[in-house]
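Subject: Predicted fold for C3HC-type domain-containing protein, 405 residues

User T.R. writes:
Posting the sequence so we have a shared reference for the thread.
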Amino acid sequence: MSTDPGPSAPRPDPSMAPKPADADDTHGDLHDVFSALYAGAEWASDAESDDGDDGAAPEPAPEVVSARFSRAQLLRALDDLILPSPSRKRRIFPDPARLPTTTPSTAPLPPLPPASLCAPFSPLPLLARLRTFRQETYSALLPPSLGAQAAALAGWTNAGPDGLACACGARWGVGGLGAIKDARVRVEVVRRLAAGLSARHREGCGWRVAASPGALVGEMRRFAHPLVAASLAPLAQELLRRSLAGPVRPVWSCPVPVEQLDALAAALQAYGADRAEPGAVLPPLDALAAALALFGWYPYDPGFAAAADHVTPGSGTPTDIVACRICQRRVGMWAFQPRDGAAKVFDLQREHVAWCPLRADDWWRECVRLRPLGEVEREGAVDIAALLVSERPAKRWRRARGVRG
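User M.O. replies:
I've generated the structure tokens; pasting them so everyone works from the same file.
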């Protein structure tokens, strides 16, 4: 009996295997899409366009229409992905809500996110972290490399006396520097502690990868305290009406020269008069009202603390307290009134909390309205409400046209 198995059975061809039902639909959809996209005459090849020498124009190719959609419908759907039409419902997620670039004095600041949020390039989370550093729990005498700004830029919040904490669970402190008598040893300890602002985060913490840039402090200040007449003018008028209506003025000082403050007061007065209701007469602004507005002081009523970060023209009760809406420092101006020929001086800049950006030097020079009104108008900045001063260098094409950037 032979054991020869005989000729082997033919192997099945993989191309002849049955395909899933949805494969034909997918191939059909792709065929329809590409046929509709490349059906126009602009996609005709050179060989097709050169057929025939009789000079007769070729017949236009008919528009390919699928059983599911036409070429016009396809192109319209593609256009909606790039430039959506407001008249049709979008098929992609809408753009996320964007915060305004500035918040004028007549509008409250947006709600702050949690201080534990890791968002290195956002000003509001930075402000939330900075507000955890209070004068009674974090020394203002620490070196700048260990100060509240440096710690908050590195992602730390204040936790206890001179203590720092992060959402990753790391906790440590920077106190005790005053007990080190040797100056060289103290400098070395400060250097090593400053290096720990990045290294002391736990493995996997986002703050070990990227810290907030130092320029974010200036961006936060411009966001919360824009140096434009649309914000400064109503604030100065409310300060004059609510906080400076008494017969006795506080003794005050600021680094801005008096002639520049007078120019600012005149500019804000002119801005308010141009936009006042017909027949309304605004009281004249003086240098103190303009200076208080410039350095970010707001009228503060303890009975309406929730509305202390903005002003509503014509409303609010008289008060002798002013507050900063960034660092939330409150000052009673009665403490600076002259008594018996002597008085404390209200330093409009230095009374802010140590980490407040309004306490820094020379930021006020960004305000264009500190210059005489005629000089600014000659340069074309008549509508100061739309003018935001920044530190960006002028673009080359702007310099070529004589426009400041």
